[in-house]
Amino acid sequence: MKYEAIIGLEVHVELATKTKMYCSCTTEFGGDTNNHCCPVCLGLPGSLPVLNKEAVNYAIKAGLALNCTINKETYMARKNYFYPDCPKNYQITQDETPLCTDGYIEVAGEDGEKKIRIHRIHIEEDTGKGFHRVDGSYYDFNRAGVPLIEIVSSPDMRTPQEAKEYLEKLKAILQYVGVSDCKMEEGSLRCDANVSIRPEGSEEFGVKVEIKNMNSFRAVEKAIEYEIKRQIKAVENGEDIVQETRRWDESRLETVSMRSKEHAHDYRYFPDADIISLSVDDEWINRVKESLPELPEQKKTRYVKELGLPEYDAMILTMSKSLAAFFEACVAEGGNPKEVSNWMMGELLRTLNDKMLEIDDVKFRPADLVKLIELINKGTISGTIAKKVFKEMFETGNNPEKIVEEKGMVQVSDEGAIIEIINKVLDENPQSVIDFKNGKTKAMAL
Amino acid sequence: MAVTIKDVEYVAKLARLEFNEQQMQKFTQDLNGILGYVEKLSEVDTEGVEISIHPFPMFNALREDIVRPSLDREEALLNAPEKEDNLFKVPKVIE
Fold first, then answer.
1. Which InterPro entries match (chain B) (predicted)?
2. DSSP state, A157?
3. How far is residue A317's CA from residue A319's CA, in Å, rounded to a whole number?
4. How far apart are CA A324 and CA A386, in angstroms?
């Protein structure tokens, strides 16, 4: 039997605010433990949380960029649970009234563009960080209370590739609008996946399994791929799929059962009376709307229409905000868009991929790339030499003119000068000339 | 919708509290009394009335995103029954 996978993603994103969600402690990453804490984020009795206006702005921004409806009246809720990473024993989040609902992201699916719906986006707070040692668990609460949005997709993805594409698109959009730096390695973007399978053509949903602990987009893709295979195998062996949470084990490349839902949490959500309800009017929404920068989709269209780039180039170059910024800076320096695009899509992206670097790590300036192209166009260097110059630029950050000059890479296209060099070489090697005339082609090596 | 001793046990477990049989019985009685009293509210017709979260129709008590000093670390850790390496220490938990 053929099976179809149903995939939904829950993504937590740390907002780029200066202070925490409900108190004025800094959100700065790193530093010493427990030095960004106050009575509010430590959950001390009598302390009162006050919502961060900028965090609400960022959440609205994310909602608008992801085509959501912004809900006018919302309130915060308490999610009750005991776990030492949560000092208050409840998390202040949103339950029945998420700030944003019903959005979507378009991904390039297997059969053309596909809309992945976003069910809801709500605002909440992060937890503290635990370290588990033999003799006990240790906690640092610097991260407790850091503003988060949780973005819940509808179960609209059908393949691991689609899930990865959704994540890449989501990250690009959130970076564009500047609501988060989305660094998975620093935990500012985290992703859980819900996966179930059903016979192809069936309308019913199967039992879903939640997968956690995926530390890269690649891991998300691999974990979902593994999980689909595992579930199909189980069903074919006549086993039931258990509703449970499974952890992705990166070293064993498999998902491992964490806990089944038999002792399911009872969070007992109820409105948090400490925080006054939120009312977002049209004026506020419009103010945020006006502050939105050009989004990837709009940029892509502009690159094609105004700069004459092929659709594919435009898609790649707008995949990240930094890449698009670099491209636009080159064009602003007078670079021909197509030539710049060729170099960026070719040498630059290839080198970055090889070295596992990001565009932000590039040492040379956009103007240097434009200059390099100019040197080729003027005939000062050949295309082959240009690649060598590029390599040097990439490694040292030096400008191409300097490299060409220092390394004597200037291409000589004066015919007279070339003949003069040839004659000189021949004069200096009379024996080789004789050998060649006598039919010894080895002399050609000269 | 009377509260049974099972409900009291469940709520006590969620709150990580332990009671003896006698206390459980008393809580069951007390809670039934309280809920019975509050039950009177259900006599009111609330058809079409929005839920109210706060006694006053107030909105948007918000804070500007400006960093203020946090507690000194020593102070932050002052109430911790156990601490080590500037971290709060608790009995080992792994879910």
1. Asp/Glu-ADT_sf_sub_c, GatC
2. B
3. 6
4. 23
| Single pTM value for the model | 0.82
ipTM of the complex: 0.88
Lowest model confidence (mean pLDDT) among A287-291, B54-58, B78-82 = B54-58
Question: In b/e form, how buried is each residue of B48-75, taking b as 16+ CB within 10 angstroms?
Answer: eeeeebeeeeeeeebbebeeeebbebee
**A350 in contact with chain B, both atoms CB, cutoff 8 A:** no
Per-residue pLDDT, averaged over A170-178, amounts to 93
pLDDT of residue B57: 80
**Alpha helical stretches, state H, A292-414:** 296-307, 311-317, 321-332, 337-343, 349-354, 366-377, 383-396, 400-406
Q: Are A189 and A180 in contact (CB under 8 A)?
A: yes
- On whether any CB of chain B is under 8 Å from the CB of A414, the answer is no
What is d(CA A118, CA A67) in angstroms, rounded to the nearest whole number? 9
The minimal CB distance from A33 to the residues B60, B72, B87 is found for B87
How many Å is the Cα radius of gyration of chain B? 22
Name every chain B residue with its beta carbon within 8 A of the beta carbon of A139: 87-90
Tokens read off for B11: 């709520």
Indicate yes or no: CB of B88 within 8 angstroms of CB of A141: yes
Interface A:B, Cβ pairs < 8 A: 128
CA dihedral A57→A164→A311→A366, nearest 10 degrees, is 70
Q: How far apart are CA A202 and CA A111, in angstroms?
A: 20
Tally of CB atoms within 10 A around A136: 15
Region A233-252 average pLDDT: 92
Q: List A residues 28-67 in contact with B (Cβ-Cβ < 8 A).
A: 32-39, 42, 44, 50-56
Over residues B61-85, mean pLDDT: 95
Q: What is the largest CA-CA distance in chain B?
A: 58
Q: H-type helices in A333-365, by residue range?
A: 337-343, 349-354
**Would you tell me the crossing angle of helices B5-14 and B21-38 to the nearest 10 degrees?**
100
If you write DSSP's letter for every residue of A252-310 in order, what string do you get? Answer: TTEEEEEEEGGG------EE-TTS-BEE--HHHHHHHHHH----HHHHHHHHHHHH---
- What kind and span of H or E run contains A10? strand A3-14
How much is the pLDDT for A411? 64
d(CA A264, CA A342): 54
Q: What is the token pair recorded at B1? A: 């919708």
Contact B54 A36 (CB under 8 A): no
DSSP state of A347: I
Compute the distance between CA of residue A20 and CA of residue A145 in angstroms, rounded to an integer: 5
Q: Residue range A73-98: average pLDDT?
A: 94
Q: Checking DSSP bridges between strand A209-214 and strand A244-249, what pairing results, if any? A: parallel
Whether the CB-CB separation of A180 and A174 falls below 8 Å is answered with yes
Spatial contact of A337 and A308, defined as CB atoms under 8 Å apart: yes
The pLDDT assigned to A415 comes to: 65
Of A314, A308, A366, A361, which Cα lies nearest the Cα of A335? A366
